[in-house]
Amino acid sequence: MVDMNKRSLLVMLIAYALLSSCTNTGSDNTDNDIVITNVTIIDAKQGPVKNVTVVVRGDKIISVSSDATPESTTTTANIIDGTGKYLIPGLWDMHVHLTYDDRFTDLMPQSFLSWGVTSVRDTGGMMQDMLPVIARMRAIDAVSPRVYFAGPLLDGQHVVYDGNARPLIGTQNSDVEQARENVRRLKNSGADFIKIYELVNPEVFLAMVDEADKLSMPIASHVPLHLLASTVGNQVGSMEHLRNIELDCASNAEALLVTRQEKLTAANIESGHALRSSLHQLQRLDAVAALDEERCAMVLANLTQTIQVPTLRLNAIALAPPYEQIDWNDAISAMLPEVQKDWNKPNEFIPKEYAKRDLRFAQYSLSMVKRMLDAGVPIGAGTDTPIALAIPGYSLHRELEMLVRAGLTPLQAIEAATVRPAQFLGIEDQMGTIEVGKRADLVLLSQNPLDDIRNTRRIDRVISKGKVIPR
Description:
By secondary structure, the protein is of the alpha/beta class. It contains 18 helices and 17 strands. Helix 6 (202-214) links the parallel strand 11 and strand 12 (219-221).
C-alpha cells in the first residue's frame, strides 16, 4: 500500500502535469521552482503553523498554503518533503566586518550561508576595501548572502580604528562640514546606511544625523562618549554592543559624563584608540556598580524606537567562551589552518579557570538585555564577526543562544535575527517573514527551534535568493 506521504506527493505530481499542459509559458518558466511540502513554518509574525506547502519561484515566495496542491506548473520542480521539519526565514547577522581580517573575507560568504545566514549588515570598513567585496557578493551568479553596508566608522577628530593600534576601518570627522560631506560621499558611493562611532562631538553627531535623514539613510551608532544614550537613542535606528548605556543608567551619570568630556577635550590625547580604551576602563565597571533602577527605567523609555544590537556572544564571552562549546571543533574546522591555530590557543582575556574570570560586565549585559526586553526595547541579533573568536555564521547561533539565556523566548530570538534587521533598513515588506511576495531566503531545520534555540543549528538545507545552497 502507498503510504500517505507518497500518496500526497503523487497527487501533487499529477496536479503539476495537468497545470503544466494548460498554463506554462516561456515567460513564466517554472522548471526551477522549489516546493517544500508538509512543513511547519515558524516566523515572528505567525508563530508556528503546521502542514504548510511553500512554493518558491525565482527569488520570491509565490505560495504559502495548507492546500496539498502547490501553485506551480511543472513536474520538474525541486520538491522537498518537509514532514517533521521546520522552516524559518533566512537569518541575518546585523553586525559584521567583512574586511576587518583578510583571513576571513573570501571565506565569509560560504561560511555565512552554510549556517543559514542569508543576509548580513556590514558595520564598518573602508570604501576602497569594501566596494570590491560588495561587488563580488552582489554579482548575479554569486553564492553569497545579501549584503548591506555602511562604509567606514564615522569617528571624530581622533579615530579609534585608524590603522595604527587597530585595523583601518574608521575615518575622521573633525567638524560639521567634513561630517556632512562624508555622509554625502557615502551615499553617492552606494552605502546603505551610516555608522557613527564614539569620538564624534555633539555638533558633528547632530550634523551626521541631519544629513543622513535628508538622504534617507538609516543610522547605526555607538553612543558617542560626549553624549548620553538617552540623548542619542531616539535619533538613530540602531545602537551597538550596549556600549555606554551603563553610564546613563548610573546614579552619578552626570558626574561621570563631565569627567569623560574633560578627558575627551584634553590637549595631550595620544591616540583615539588609547583614549577610548582608557575611558571604558576608567568608568565602565564603576557605572555598572552604580546602576540606578529609576533612572535606568527612564533611559530605556527613550530607547523603545531604537533597535539594540547587544552582541551578547561578545559582551558575555567570559560566561561561555566559544571554544568550550561541544560543536566548536567542527565549526572552526572550516576556517584556515592559521586561524584554527590562533583561536585554539589559550586566550589571555579569558582565564581557563572559571573562578578567575571577571564576569561583571558579562552578567550586566545579560541583565540589561532583560531590562530592555521588559521595557519594550527592540532587540537585534549581531555578532561583530570575525572579532573575538566569531566564526562567520556559527557565531550568529551563539548569539541567539545568549539572547535566550538573557530572557528572550526562542521566537523573540528568531525575530531579532529576521524581522529587526529588515525593520532597520525599511525593507520589512520584502524580508523577515514567510509570506507570499517576500524574498526567497529560507532555512529548513530538522528540529524545532522553539523547543531549544540551539536547534537553529540543525540545518537540513538553506535556500538563498531562491536557490538551494549545498552545505
